[in-house]
């Protein structure tokens, strides 16, 4: 029989003999790579799907805002590098035959820019009557092509048939106003109609979509319009507006926490696999010596063990990659796309995922090679000698002390074993601590989001209804709304800040009373607004380098005049990082205060004259809880994977530990120790390791969560990391019970120890 066949048969015998170990290594790699590739493919899928969608359906590059007309459109068309221009009139309206449902109604002349993706029904036809409706809004409200919708457009009653259900590339992420952070598709949506159906008095555009030939020319076109067309209030990059920006921020945030979560899974799995393989090779030291004594070369022996590891690694990586791409990633992407409207989305596998998978296989095989090489370089006689544990003098001094001698035999035995096998103990502890950190992180993300909702709805927002004032509302209409409902009002203004010559989009929030919408201090407690300047959020100050006492320079979008206002304080806001001032200070700048929102606790049955929409705080609460429910399902999957990985790691560590102690346990049995006593020795050490891992894992999990919310989350959010005692207890108790149960299950092997065989093997 050839040497290759002998080693191949040995490998098969080793697999059968150590099948449980083979499976645990395979599962660690599978779980780790599935989590990594699944999260990566879903995030990459979001990005690439949107890029294809934008390109295919010709998303506009710029949007010009103001009260514009066909003359404006023609002037913009003549600008160099402009390929096409299309006007759009948009208005927010209520659906009369659906309770508490709002639509952004858009009137267009053609559909060459931001083209519809038709899900069902007819494509756009300027001569066709009817509406093209947001497919998500239709789905959540059980609407279909052919149904009739009724709504009011500035006093004009419209009754239209749904002729098509659509996605539109500039409505990938559609929110009604700045109070929303995620779309709530059952409460509001968007629709399109031909401009030919626009009532006669309203033949103008609220915005103009601009298609530029190349990205590098967008800034020049923007400057040309801003400098030469006074009727244009502002020109914004489409990528900076909420639809594209909100979607992209979700991707950017995901890429950061993807690296954290997936990196942890991979690091934990790889650490345990590498140490397992090293210990496996060490356990086979006597077999390596025998093989070398029989004449096998060092290269043949090394390749035997490397190929063994290669088979496991490749199988684990392939199964994990396939599971991540076709199941894990698809599940995450489907959950995410409950909010975002992208046509024909799907997971995507980037080249760097393949690279990481290759690195995993390489590292595992390299570790195996390094371990084997340490043995095969020695003479066979040296390898076959009993390997004696190396204990440092410090450890010897402790185990020789009077204090140590007073301890029970079980404690002394375990301490000696830990001192002699520090690497084994540390790696086992690291694996369990890593899984503990993943559990804490998963649960604490939920805690933090629950705390955010509580802060936003119970502390900041102190009202039942928000009445959004129409842009065309008259003074007497606003006065009547205030008289009938409340004097609590506010105004949000889009502005640009200027610092060191750099312009940045922001907003100014003018708070009239500070009763309905509270301002919170650094400790998240309500504070009184100062009247001698402005305040900015701590997050904004950190991101842009502002300090109390210095001036912030800003101007209202569409206006030339800049204001320099003194920063007199800072606040915390989880959702809006802007400039806040009182009405009194705003008017001291020479500006007229006209509210765009009025807050009340009075029941509102019908939308008042002069109001665009009425928003219930309960509706906001429902939207946030819907978002949280989706997040919970995604986090639950991550937690389940962390638990599975933890179980496999604990089982693997326990199995190897038991095998390595086989000789010692056999000796104890010969000396008359009962199976129960030996089992207690084994369990006690595992309990110690688990408790230390829990102590390390708790702050590590908090640190990871803190990093996610401080670094990974978009700069427009400022979440206070919140970890409940319940999370700590569930994570700690769950980890401890898992470890204990696995340890108890492994102790069944004590009764099956073959004392003669173990002592003869001296292993």
What does this molecule look like?
This protein is of the alpha+beta class and 763 residues long. The protein folds into 4 domains: 191 residues, no CATH class; 188 residues, no CATH class; 190 residues, no CATH class; 114 residues, no CATH class. It has 22 helices and 21 strands. The strands form 3 sheets. Strands 1, 2, 3, 4, 5, 6, 7, 8, 9 and 10 form a 10-stranded mixed β-sheet that branches. A hairpin with a 2-residue loop joins strand 6 and strand 7. Helix 2 runs antiparallel to helix 6, helix 2 packs across helix 8 and helix 13 crosses helix 20. The longest helix has 44 residues. It is elongated. The two termini are 29 Å apart.
Give the key terms:
alpha+beta; ten-stranded mixed sheet; 22 helices; 21 strands; 18% strand; elongated
Estimate nothing, just give the exact number of structural domains. Answer: 4
N-to-C CA distance:
29 Å
DSSP summary, beta strand count: 21
Radius of gyration: 33 Å
Shape: elongated
**Mind describing the biggest β-sheet?**
10 strands, mixed
* Percentage of β-strand residues: 15-25%
Q: Averaged pLDDT, please?
A: 82
Indicate the structural class.
alpha+beta
Task: Give the proportion of residues in helices.
Answer: 40-55%
Summed up, the helix count is 22
Note poorly predicted spans.
Answer: none
């Amino acid at each position: 029989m050839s040497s290759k066949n002998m080693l191949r048969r040995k490998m098969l015998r080793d697999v059968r003999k150590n099948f449980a170990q083979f499976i645990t290594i395979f599962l660690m790699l599978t779980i780790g790579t599935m989590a990594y590739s699944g999260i990566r493919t879903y995030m990459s899928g979001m990005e690439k799907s949107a890029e294809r969608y934008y390109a295919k359906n010709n998303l506009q590059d710029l949007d010009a805002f103001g009260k514009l007309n066909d003359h404006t459109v023609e002037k913009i068309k003549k600008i160099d590098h402009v390929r096409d221009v299309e006007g759009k009139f948009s208005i927010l309206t209520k659906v009369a035959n659906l309770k508490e449902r709002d639509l952004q109604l858009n009137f267009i002349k053609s559909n060459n820019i931001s083209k519809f993706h038709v899900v069902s029904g007819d494509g756009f036809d300027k001569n066709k009557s009817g509406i093209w409706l947001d497919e998500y809004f239709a789905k959540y409200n059980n609407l279909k092509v052919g149904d009739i919708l009724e709504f009011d457009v500035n006093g004009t009653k419209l009754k239209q048939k749904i002729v098509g259900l659509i996605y539109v590339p500039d409505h990938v992420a559609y929110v009604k106003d700045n109070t929303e952070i995620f779309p709530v598709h059952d409460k509001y949506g968007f629709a399109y109609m031909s401009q030919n159906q626009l009532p006669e008095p309203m033949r103008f555009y609220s915005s103009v979509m601009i298609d530029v030939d190349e990205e590098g020319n967008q800034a020049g076109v923007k400057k040309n319009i801003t400098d030469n067309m006074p009727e244009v209030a502002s020109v914004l990059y489409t990528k900076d507006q909420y639809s594209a920006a909100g979607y992209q921020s979700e991707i950017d945030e995901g890429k950061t926490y993807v690296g954290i979560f997936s990196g942890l899974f991979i690091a934990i799995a790889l650490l345990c696999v590498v140490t397992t393989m090293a210990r496996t090779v060490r356990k086979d030291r006597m077999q390596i010596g025998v093989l070398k004594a029989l004449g096998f070369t060092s290269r043949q022996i090394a390749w035997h063990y490397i190929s063994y590891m290669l088979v496991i690694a490749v199988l684990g990586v392939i199964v994990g990659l396939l599971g991540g791409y076709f199941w894990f990633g698809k599940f995450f992407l489907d959950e995410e796309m409950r909010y975002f409207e992208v046509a024909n989305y799907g997971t995507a596998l980037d080249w760097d995922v393949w690279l990481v998978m290759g690195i995993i296989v390489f590292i595992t095989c390299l570790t195996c090679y390094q371990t084997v090489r340490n043995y095969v370089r020695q003479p066979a006689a040296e390898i076959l000698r009993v390997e004696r544990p190396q204990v440092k003098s410090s450890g010897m001094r402790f185990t020789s002390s009077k204090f140590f001698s007073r301890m029970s035999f079980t404690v002394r035995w375990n301490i000696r074993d830990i001192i002699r096998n520090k690497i084994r103990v540390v790696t086992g502890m690291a694996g369990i601590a890593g899984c503990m950190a993943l559990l804490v992180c998963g649960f604490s993300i939920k805690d933090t989001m629950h705390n955010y909702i509580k802060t936003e709805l119970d502390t900041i927002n102190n009202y039942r209804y928000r009445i959004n004032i129409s842009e065309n509302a008259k003074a007497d209409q606003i006065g009547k709304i205030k008289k009938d409902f409340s004097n609590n009002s506010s105004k949000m203004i889009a502005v640009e800040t200027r610092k060191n010559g750099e312009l940045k989009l922001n907003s100014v929030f003018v708070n009239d009373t500070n009763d309905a919408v509270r301002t919170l201090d650094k400790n998240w407690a309500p504070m009184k607004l100062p009247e001698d300047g402005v305040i900015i959020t701590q997050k904004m100050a950190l991101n842009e380098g502002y300090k109390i006492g210095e001036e912030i320079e800003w101007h209202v979008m569409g206006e030339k005049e800049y204001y320099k206002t003194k920063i007199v304080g800072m606040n915390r806001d989880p959702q809006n990082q802007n400039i806040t001032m009182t009405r009194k200070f705003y008017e001291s700048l020479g500006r007229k205060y006209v509210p765009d929102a009025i807050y009340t606790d009075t029941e509102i049955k019908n939308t008042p004259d002069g109001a665009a929409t009425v928003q219930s705080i309960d509706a906001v609460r429902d939207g946030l809880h819907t978002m949280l429910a989706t997040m919970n399902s995604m986090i639950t999957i991550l937690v389940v994977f962390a638990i599975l990985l933890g179980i496999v790691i604990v089982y693997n560590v326990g199995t190897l530990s038991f095998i390595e102690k086989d000789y010692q346990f056999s000796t104890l049995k010969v000396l008359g120790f009962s199976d129960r006593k030996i089992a207690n020795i084994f369990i006690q050490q595992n309990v110690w390791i688990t408790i230390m891992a829990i102590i390390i894992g708790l702050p590590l999990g908090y640190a990871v969560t803190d990093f996610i919310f401080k670094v990974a989350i978009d700069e427009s959010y400022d979440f206070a990391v919140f970890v409940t005692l319940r999370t700590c207890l569930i994570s700690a108790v769950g980890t401890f019970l898992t470890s204990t149960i696995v340890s108890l299950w492994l102790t069944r092997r004590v009764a099956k120890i073959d004392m003669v065989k173990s002592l003869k093997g001296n292993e």
